[in-house]
Design brief:
There is one protein chain. By secondary structure, the protein is α+β, with helices and mostly antiparallel strands. It folds into three domains: about 130 residues, Immunoglobulin-like (Sandwich); about 110 residues, Glutaredoxin; about 120 residues, no CATH class. Helix content is about 40%, strand content about 20%. The strands form two sheets. Strands 1, 2, 3, 4, 5, 6, 7 and 8 form an eight-stranded mixed beta sheet that branches. Strands 9-10-11-13-12 form a five-stranded mixed beta sheet. Strand 10, helix 3 and strand 11 form a beta-alpha-beta unit. Helix 7 crosses helix 8. The chain starts with a helix and ends with a helix.
């Protein structure tokens, strides 16, 4: 009886334990493996895939090298006729998924199976998402690479010098450094720049994409000072994004834009005059209201930037650069801004505003009987001040591309997931189920054994009678 129970348990474990995939992945015979860009609209992946048996399934895995919270892989399933040699093709439509910034790195590979059960995987390929209309050239210094296409190389050198100076200021003033090279793409004018990215405002003058370590900028027609300051401003946003990257927390807009403005240097005369007038007339904007997106009204937007610069300047020049680094690190660790301020400086947002107002000789903050709401930061385009009106506008876009599919394969949506987490949870769940089944199995087998034993004893007892 014990032998039977043991055999049953072994059989039960054999069927219930997760089976190991012993099939090996073989190197794929992928010829003419490439991607073709219709910039900035689509990226079409294609390859000729071969096997000794008919190919029965094909999967394209693809993505982009951006800063993310996990290992996200998009998958596409191109249609094809089973054969030993298949021409596979699939189009990533940026008009549906959202545009990548110029200079983003795209990767892809093919996985396919033939009718014998053999599985193949191709080598991982990469390409830079960039137009071929312009004759791009590159100069670099340290962790900064400047890409340009105009015939005037002096402009590129000027922008490189501005960027290097911006990196130096951010390191010394706020402790912001880069852990990877930053690519700066300089367009000769704003029209060329706007043609390079989809779904951005028509007034866009430049943008920072911290998750890609990319900055794009359209040069102004005549304001060289704005060009230099815009480079420094947008580089600062990238550095802040690198240091404070978090899947939970966020940086209030007044701090993010204030640091970018502070890295540019002293306020221009127009902005300083506006700030002084707002102080004297008690028309300042509350700090809490600037935690989210700034106003779209030019005057209020410009004051928001100017006031944010003044508050950040007060923090850095009063308490030092190390404290600012501590504050940003606390925000990276997903602490709310009030908790991060208290931990670093000993006061919250209201306390900071009170101290700053006193330092600039402004009227005390009006205290409301009702609790002050704290707006959630939003990723929306905001105005960037320059000397005088009209204002040039520089949004800081935020876009996470997702896979898209054409009409040929609607039944196969993309399925990005975290491979390691998925496998771990599957194994844990399988182990729990197996344990429960084993306990139930042992209980049932034990019950059956006791019942058989009782029957045997009953028969013996009957015979004895």
């Amino acid at each position: 009886m014990r032998t039977k129970i043991l055999i049953l348990l072994i059989l039960l474990m054999t069927f219930l334990l997760p089976r190991q995939d012993v099939s090996a992945l073989f190197p794929a015979d992928a010829q003419n493996d490439r991607v073709t860009f219709d910039f900035p609209n689509t990226a079409t992946f294609s390859a000729t895939l071969k096997s000794n048996a008919r190919i029965t399934s094909i999967t394209l895995e693809y993505g982009d090298n951006q800063l993310t919270c996990g290992n996200v892989i998009a998958k596409a399933y191109p249609q094809f006729e089973p054969a030993q040699s298949v021409q596979a093709e699939w189009m990533w439509d940026m008009r549906q998924s959202g545009s990548l910034p110029p200079g983003a790195q795209i990767w892809w590979r093919w996985k396919y199976t033939d009718e014998s059960g053999a599985e193949f995987v191709s080598e991982r390929q990469t390409a830079t998402w960039l137009d071929t209309v312009h004759d791009w050239q590159t100069i670099e210094s340290g962790d900064l690479r400047v890409h340009w296409y105009s015939s005037d190389s002096a402009v590129a050198k000027t922008m490189l010098e501005a960027g290097v100076e911006g990196l130096r200021r951010n390191k010394e003033q706020a402790g912001l450094t880069t852990d990877a090279p930053i690519d700066l793409y300089i367009y000769s004018n704003t029209d060329d720049m706007r043609d390079s990215i989809l779904y951005e405002p028509a007034w866009m003058g430049g943008g920072a994409f911290a998750e890609y370590n990319v900055v794009i900028l359209g040069l102004s027609a005549s304001d060289k000072t704005w060009d230099r300051n815009a480079v420094i401003h947008e580089l600062t946003h990238v550095l802040i994004g690198q240091l404070t990257f978090s899947c939970i927390g966020s940086v209030p807009t007044w701090l993010n834009e204030g640091l970018a403005m502070y890295s540019e240097g002293e306020l221009d005369s127009y902005s300083q005059t506006q700030l002084n007038q707002s102080i004297s007339s008690n028309q300042l904007i509350t700090l809490r209201s600037m935690s989210g997106g700034f106003s779209e009204l030019p005057d209020k937007a410009n004051l928001s930037y100017t006031q944010s610069q003044s508050v950040v300047k007060f923090l850095i020049e009063t308490y030092g650069q190390d404290k600012m680094t501590e504050l940003l690190t606390a925000l990276r660790d997903s602490k709310p801004i009030d908790d991060a301020l208290i931990e670093t400086y000993g006061f919250d947002t209201d306390g900071l505003e009170d101290l700053w107002r006193k330092a600039v000789n402004a009227a005390p903050r009006a205290v409301s009987a009702q609790p002050t709401s704290q707006p959630t930061p939003t990723f929306v385009p905001t105005y960037v001040p320059m000397s005088g009106a009209p204002l040039a506008v520089t949004p800081t876009p935020y876009a996470v591309p997702t896979s898209s599919f054409d009409g040929a394969s609607p039944e196969a949506p993309a399925s990005p997931f975290k491979d390691k987490t998925f496998i771990f949870l599957t194994v844990v769940l399988a182990c729990v189920c197996i344990s429960m089944l084993l306990v139930v199995g042992i209980f049932i087998l034990g019950f059956m054994a006791r019942r058989d034993s009782a029957k045997v004893k009953g028969k013996k007892h009957a015979k004895a009678k």
